[in-house]
Amino acid sequence: MSLPPDIADLLAPKYGLDPSICTGPGLVAATRLRMEINGLDDEFSYYDQLRQSGEELDAFVEELLIPESWFFRDRVPFDFLKSWVTESWLPTAKPEVDVLRVLSLPCAAGQEPYSIAITLLEAGLRPEQFSILSGDLSPRFVEQAREGTYRSIAFRGEDYVEREKYFEDIGEGLIRVRSFVRNLVSFKSMNLVCAEDYADDGPFQLIFCRNVLIYFNDDARRMAFEGLERSLTDDGVLFAGHADAIFRINDDFGRYGPPGAFCYSRRAKSETEDVPDALPKPQSKPLPAIEKRRRFFQTSKVAELPKSKDPVRLPSADSLTEAKRLADSGQLEDAERICRERIDTGPASADACFLLGEILLARKEVADADAQFRRTVYLDKSHRDALFRLALLAEQRGDSREAGNWRRRAANRAQPSTSMTNSPST
């Protein structure tokens, strides 16, 4: 199933959605739900309503982009945030003057900004020492985030903090963020592609914008990133996601922090520059206005950031071979770790993404595997093995049309891509 071209064209200017979002099982689910809500029994009638109603178009996009999130998702970024605050920001901050300003966008249902607030408290900051602004394109998500009420699915794995300290059980299977944490985050409706929605509240030393840019088309991705860049302080830190290759959008930004943190900070352009394993310490001088900083970066060379004494070593060419060996022998966790380190610290690698997808598939993490195979094809359009995997997953979802498209694309490639001979065994 795919949207009619004219409706897909309506989504691009306002929402910046990549065309791939306008097809597949997510589209089927969103369309059927909105048809049911509107009391319609055929797609053509619903598409007519989408063409005529901007309000329904907004509601449709909300449903299409429903995010899945949970508290302290991916853990490593929050570990690194805590260490950066305690080791870099607090020692240089002036208690009566400096306020750590954080932007979290999009907020979804609020799990991420609340996770940030709790991490900053755990790092020893007092409430008056930081401010967090968060928001989403969807007013419904913003209201849900303000409410701060969740079911148990929002908590996964071992507790990162003492849960009762920051959350309260309100009955009927619901858990609510305690009021003193909710009061630490300000929410409002914001469009990531429109920097005007948040620029006046900046500049920010920390920006969390994870795993969302990959869903945008090229123009929207550039617009979104330019807005974030202008709103980030000169020494600021951007937390992106594993799917957001920031260095491919702007090579003035380099990776910082441990593998899995997916942090970026500005750096001077240099083909031979080492990649530090720690973030630059914040400057103590007053922060310039956004427009002043923009002009500075247009006319001046950015000073090179201090290098770490122990720079991260890029994985060797044999690292993927070792990861394949571990995967084939059933050591999936070790194999996954090597793949993620290779993706985080090395150049963009289709083979690394594909192998990670194979590992995730073996662990029955189908949605994440599908995302890695799509990223593989994004990096290497001729990667036949990834194309065939995507076709298989589409068939398993019952989407024969999408499966056929993937198979036709694979059939047009002359040679198979380099990959594991066998999928890793469980």
UniProtKB/TrEMBL annotation:
Species this chain originates from: Rubellicoccus peritrichatus
SUPFAM superfamilies tied to this protein: S-adenosyl-L-methionine-dependent methyltransferases (SSF53335), TPR-like (SSF48452)
Chain ranges of the CheR-type methyltransferase domain: 34-269
Residue spans of biased composition, Polar residues class: 415-426
Descriptive protein name: CheR family methyltransferase
Region (Disordered) location: 401-426
Keywords: Methyltransferase, S-adenosyl-L-methionine, Transferase
Gene Ontology molecular function terms on file: S-adenosylmethionine-dependent methyltransferase activity
GO annotation terms (biological process): methylation
Pfam annotation, one family: CheR
Keyword Methyltransferase attached: yes
